[in-house]
Amino acid sequence: MTALMPLSAHVSTLAQLGNRHGSADVMEAPDLNYQILVPMLVLFGGACIAILFEAMVKGAQRSIVQVFTVGLTLLATLGVLVYNFAQGRFGSYGAGLLMADKPAYIMQMALIVFTVGSMFLFVTHTSTSAREAGGRNSQLESEIHALALFSLFGMVMFVASTNLLMLFIALEVLSLPLYVLCSMDRYRPNRSQEASLKYFLLGVVAAALTLYGIVLTFGATGSFDYQAIAQAAENGVEANFFLGFLFIIAGLFFKIGAVPFHSWVPDVYQGAPTPVTAFMAIATKLAAFGALGRLLTLAVPMNDVDTWKLVIAIAAAVSMAYGAIVAIAQRDVKRLIAYSSIGHAGFILAAFVGSTDGVFTVAGLEITAMSAAIVYLLAYGLATIGAFAVVTLVRDENGKEATDFDSWAGIGRKHPAIGAAFVIYFLSFAGIPLTAGFIGKLSAFAVPWLAGQAWLVVVALLLSAVAAFAYFRFLTVMFFDTPSKNARMVAPQGAVTVIIAVTAILTVLMGVLPTWVISLVSDAGSFLVG
Q1: CB-CB contact of 210 with 230 (8 Å)
Q2: HSE (CB half, 13 Å, CA atoms) of 321?
Q3: What is the pLDDT of residues 108-122, one digit of tens each?
Q4: Are 333 and 408 in contact, with CB atoms under 8 Å apart?
Q5: What confidence tens digit (pLDDT) does each residue in 89-100 have?
Q6: Kind of pairing, strands 98-100 and 91-93?
Q7: Chain center to CA of 14
Q8: Where are the domains of the chain?
Q9: Which pLDDT belongs to residue 13?
Q10: Is the peptide bond before 260 cis (omega within 30 degrees of 0)?
Q11: Ranges of the chain whose pLDDT falls below 70
Q12: How many CA within 13 A on the CB side of residue 240?
């Protein structure tokens, strides 16, 4: 009987079956390139250590230890990324699950830098909470640092994923800590927890949609790998592929905050603690656009390019229109930035209309859709971090953050230095020349123009003007309205002062001398395949 056959007979039978089917059916061990994986391992290890310190270290020292641990982890990760990039350590890990190429390194380094900026706001926020609450240790929200590290770990995987299963795993790793972070505003716990619940429930729906799309795509193509999906789809597949791929893109649109998956953005931006909002606003958007760019470039079959161009173009146009028009009606600065972020998502999506068209030449420099998007995201990130840093300074009579327009009336006149910095950020949002935002819009709009989508550029320019009206309307309140008697601006601590000064200077510097940024990013706009 078969059950009583000796082990050698089983081995012989398996060998004969393997020879009969050929060597192609023999599974090979994946290539484990640990040099590429080191930055992620450092980040994950630091996050785990931070969790241990959260449980082991007691008293006021816990917050200090957490800040030191997180800072050291971020600097070490950034150092490894810079070294790998400089040494040209490019390639794949685990049979193509993750790819280390120039776009991945650039976006991962940008994620680290913007997270460092957000951490400055975290430190100031938690220390201020503790001081104003009488120094109670319970107010030292040191757990936010470890949660932010775990979310960042998911983000660096997200931008490097070339496999749908890895994409979904990274999506969940980056999302789950964010749901908790959004609920940690101890000034307004009810509003914060409501925002967290909305974000979680809608996030679960988006994750389910993404997972269902992955299942449909695998069923239609027989693979999770991006390039294998494109090759299988070129040979002709059933309608399940289009539906599945559309669901995956819908899940990414949720993280980007693009229409029609934007409904969480205003409430979450307003309800979450401002440092968390700053972290989400740029880091999540940067990671999601990185993942979307890689997916569109590598997984879209050539015979379906025009179809997906149309899908992206429509989503871009609708997001621009909705964000710009609804922003005009806002009377809360955080909701204004939230709706403007929806519009910015549309502007960046416009660049992805040319994601399959290769390299374009703009002002003598070669750029791709991905490099144009990175330039825009860098400009957007600088202005966003700086703007939210200023938001943390305006308080009402109870010491809570005041974000309604009435509380900001006359703030620019009373505090000209802070007001000038805020003007720089909003001019950059509007894409005014000599700011980083102008360079970002120029890069993002040049790609669809050169790709033959001139109508989208015209729409983007018109809606940029509409969005600019919303920004200038708020600046008018800041500088020309009668100052509010119930609001004040607290003296910025050192960390906030550094963030405001650095982001304002870099926003202007990038607008005046853009060549160095575009040159750096233009060399990192092509995805590695293999």
Answers
A1: no
A2: 11
A3: 999 999 999 988 888
A4: yes
A5: 887 776 678 888
A6: antiparallel
A7: 48
A8: 317-530
A9: 40
A10: yes
A11: 1-33, 59, 94-95, 125-142, 236-238, 355-366, 486-492, 523-530
A12: 15
